[in-house]
Amino acid sequence: MQKAEKNRQYGEKTIVFVDEIHRFNKAQQDAFLPFVEKGSIILIGATTENPSFEINGALLSRCKVFVLQALRTEDLMDLLHHALQDEQGFGTQKIGITEDMLQAIAVFANGDARTALSTLEMVILNGDVQADRSILVSAETLEQCTAKKSLLYDKNGEEHYNIISALHKSMRNSDPDAAVYWLARMLEAGEDPLYVARRVTRFASEDIGLADPRALEIAIAAYQACHFIGMPECSVHLTEAVVYMSLAPKSNALYLAYETAKKDAISQLAEPVPLVIRNGVTKLMKDIGYGKGYQYAHDAKEKLTDMQCLPDSLLGREYYQPTTAGTEARYKERLVQIKQWKEARQQHDRSGK
Question: Beta strands 128-129 and 135-136: pairing type?
Fold first, then answer.
């Protein structure tokens, strides 16, 4: 960096190229910042990770991001043909391989040129040597060399979050086929089944809730099954849970209820608990009003009372707004009955009867 700064003073520009720049920690990345700002260096960093997660915000804001897309199958076919014809590849050898086989290799590579070339080399090295020293690649050899596909998946990177998001949104959209596909993508790439089971458990309450309370039971049962027997046997239990979640009626009422209540809880952290529902465990507490006027709901005929449980500033606030989806319709009817009863009780008290 010091040499680059001296060169800058003489009008020379220095390009610094850093491969796999995400391997630098945040403190090491900070070392580039003053020299980038002064123009001492032109920094070019290459990374297979999402720079939004791995690169310092200050450094990233001073750079332009270019996204390199995966190669198309047609591009990989051109690459494979070139490798077969070029002298630095297999151009000096006679290789017997069909277009369909090259197409299969290109598809197997999944947009990765290195995978395509490595697979081509592997099938040729394992091909049958003929009497004229030519090499014939058979369908059986190709099948053996492409038996296990290396799935694009990083358990700690962006693709991890992309695919779990795809699973969650597929279940939310009531699409069991898509949900099972994304589940398979994660499990076959080596994802921890317990992680998937935890996400499904969250979904059961966030996106279904009381519209089908059994969804949570299914999710917990799937988690326990994964814990008991692990992969690959537990894949069927997760499939059962994922399909159930996809087909269940949807409601985000519980999620919205908590998020709304959380805003009030954060903005009014010092809101006191009403004295009537405080537990007066000592004589002093009782003397100053703890628990005074408390109404035990079980002693009431309707199992309801008009006792105030919210702080004064939040009186009348309604957080839980049930939908008419599935069994949650019953809870909505119950809430309406409770509200009507309380309104009638208040009217009765005002009339003095």
Answer: antiparallel
72: which DSSP letter? P
Whose structure tokens read 């695919």? Answer: 163
Retrieve residue 13's tokens.
Answer: 């520009």
Structure tokens at 183: 């589940």
Pairing of strands 135-136, 41-46: unpaired
- Which one, of 210, 214, 238, 231, lies nearest residue 332 by Cα? 210
Residues 199 and 238 sit within 8 Å (Cβ to Cβ): no
Backbone dihedral angles phi then psi of residue 60, each to the nearest 5 degrees: -65, -35
- Whether 246 and 171 have beta carbons less than 8 Å apart is answered as yes
**Where are the strands (E) in the chain, listed by range?**
14-19, 41-46, 95-96, 128-129, 135-136
Cβ neighbourhood burial of 132 (10 Å; 0-12, 13-18, 19+): exposed
Tokens of 165: 């998001």
Is residue 204 within 8 A of residue 229, CB to CB? The reply is no
pLDDT block averages, 10 residues each, the chain of length 353: 86 90 88 87 87 83 86 93 92 91 89 91 90 89 74 57 91 93 90 93 95 95 93 94 94 94 83 83 83 84 82 85 84 83 76 61
**DSSP H or E run through 109:** helix 99-109
Task: Report the phi/psi class of residue 133: left, alpha or beta, with left for phi > 0 and alpha for psi in -120 to 50.
Answer: left
**Inter-residue contact 1 to 39 (CB < 8 Å):** no
* H helices present in the chain, as ranges: 2-9, 26-30, 33-38, 51-54, 57-60, 73-85, 99-109, 113-125, 139-145, 158-172, 176-188, 193-203, 214-229, 235-247, 253-267, 283-287, 328-351
